[in-house]
Please model this.
Amino acid sequence: MSLSLRALPFTLMMIYLLSTILLFWFGPLDWPTPNPKTMALFLTCAVFGICAFYVVGAQDDPEGHPISSWRSIIVAGAILSVVILFPSAHYYADKMPWQILDALKDQKAAYDALQKKLVDTAGTRTLISAVRAMVYPVIFAALPLSILNWRRMSWWLWILTAAAVCSGLIFSILRGTDREGFDMIIIAGASGFVVAARSCVARNATLSDIILNRKTLAGAVLFLVIASFALSVFADRRAQRTGYTPEAFAAGTRDAPSLAEHLKSGAGWGDVMCIRDICLDPDHVLVRYVDAPKKYTILMLTSYLTQGYFGLSLAMTNRQSSTLGIGHSSVITRLYERLTHDASLYERSYTFGLRQMHWSDESQWSSIFPWLANDVGFPGSIAVICLLAFLWGRSWRDAVGANNDAAAIVFCLLFQLFVYVPANNQLAQTFDAYFTITGWCAFWLLAKLSIKKERPALLRAGPRV
Model:
């Protein structure tokens, strides 16, 4: 594998992470960072660590082989995604899938219903949560395996894949959330990188040959169209969540029929365009020349991409002790507290300490690092992220060089994890994601061990006559 291929995902991810860091320091939200020098040093060490360990992980010869039962996994994943949608929609959104149009009309009401349902069913969702966690590794694999094997896909397999994707999108709309749709775009993009790199290796072509290929360019255009559409939908749904609609104005629950009209009032900007007391700069170059809905979209995107770094800066001012392996994940923490009836262990964590600083771990982001630091401290969090970067590089090497489909799925999951680095420890915040990343990592690594055990036996046996 050429150097350019080994560095492809790492280069794209570094561009993204550095862009979020620059947006944090110089963007339209002026975060009042209490420790800018410490923050700059910490982020510099983290970025260099990710770079170094990814490069080390991507070295050496690839190992593994394709998954022979990929068709069965796609079929099972699609069927399970449709079946699990119905109880999930009831327990998490208080709706059924056929109510999607009603939810789409008022995403604020859908999101409010989700929050109420989560409170009302707390402690009673154990069964559905356990079932979702057990089946989600198979559901997750349907999309990347379809893209990885796209040349051998039949039309009915594509229909099943579309059913799995639609089930996820319907669940997202019913809950009034955006994450599921963007996660699918991330996973599809990561799978596309693997397909393009495999094509390079198979044809002994350079990366530029693949990039300039008409099929690749057509795929890139299609991906950009889908991403643009998703961003447009995101902006529309976010504007809906403000509640400034003609219907709300007529009912007397809002003082204006649209967000633009509300912003014209004296308190409009401070009421809508702020995260806590930190407001969007109306004179910033990214904000000044766009209309009201786009200004709000910029606020939301900037907040999503940078608020975690502000939470990190606050967490680094705390003095806490280790949570002994449970603090990196909110779901593991809740499970521990339910089993032991002991909440004191998590209460000594960095993320819990943010509540006293009016930056709650339950509603605000603080990047992945404080979650890791809950267990191993901030220096240890850099060590953990370096280990994850090493595994990411290894999975890319095996996925591309050996057509290892399990490694490709792990690569997609770790790609998703690094996209969420500015936000939180995303793959450890739900049992669905936690079981998926641990399950596929175990499958990939155990398969590698079995290959290594087979090699000495084959060497001892000698060549077949």
